[in-house]
Design a protein that fits this description.
Pfam families: TetR_C_1 (PF02909), TetR_N (PF00440). By secondary structure, the chain is mainly alpha-helical. About 65% of the residues lie in helices and about 0% in strands. The longest helix is centred in the last third of the chain and has 20 residues.
Length: about 200
């Protein structure tokens, strides 16, 4: 018997194809038909591996969250560990920004998501935060990471800084001096916010 001309389908293969569709076409582009077309199969064959779109999105969530490195959270110094985790978490969703709208308001069911929150909350607990404070800190970190991955402050100001000066001189000054610092305003803004968050947590432990 000859070998199949294409790789057999699996839940992981389907999830990776779904992620590619979302990366390229956004969350509205993820349909079972679009996914089947990408894989070169009939849509009906997908249902042998996923029950429907909800289960497909759960698989996609598992795949994306598996890219987040949890190792920094196990380090001996809580501040450095949470900072390293936050940077890695943000980097994943900067690679896959279209998944944020798809996943942010869904229930947390993927094992890798749950493991991530468990590791973060355990690290916050070891730092000295009680469970309620740790929950607030985890929520704040989510807002910071996902918001900064989804939005770019810099791209909102497409004109040269001097063009804003006649009507918005403070904005022109801010953009000009920020550009002179180098390193990227979005990155510096994230690091500032992360540092302020960690300072706030340090005051609670």
């Amino acid at each position: 018997m000859g070998r199949p001309s294409r790789a057999l389908l699996s839940r992981e293969i389907i999830a990776r194809a779904a992620l590619a569709v979302v990366d390229e076409a956004g969350p509205d582009g993820l349909t079972m038909r679009a996914l089947a077309d990408r894989l070169g199969v009939k849509a009906a064959s997908l249902y042998n591996h996923v029950a429907g779109k909800d289960e497909l999105i759960d698989s996609l969530a598992e795949l994306v969250n598996a890219e987040i490195d949890l190792a920094p959270l196990a380090g001996p110094e809580w501040r450095a560990g949470i900072a390293g985790y936050a940077r890695g978490y943000r980097a994943v969703f900067r690679r896959h920004p279209n998944t944020i709208a798809l996943l942010a308001r869904r229930r947390v069911e993927a094992d890798r998501q749950l493991l991530g929150y468990e590791a973060l909350l355990a690290a916050l607990g070891r730092a000295g935060l009680g469970p309620a404070d740790a929950a607030e800190a985890a929520a704040a970190l989510d807002y910071l990471v996902l918001g900064s991955a989804l939005e770019t402050f810099t791209a909102g100001f497409a004109r040269p800084a001097e063009e804003y000066r006649p009507d918005y001189p403070s904005l022109a000054d801010a953009l000009t001096e920020s550009a002179a610092r180098g390193g990227g305003l979005d990155e510096r803004g994230f690091e500032l916010a992360l540092g302020l968050l960690l300072d706030g947590l340090a005051a609670r432990v």
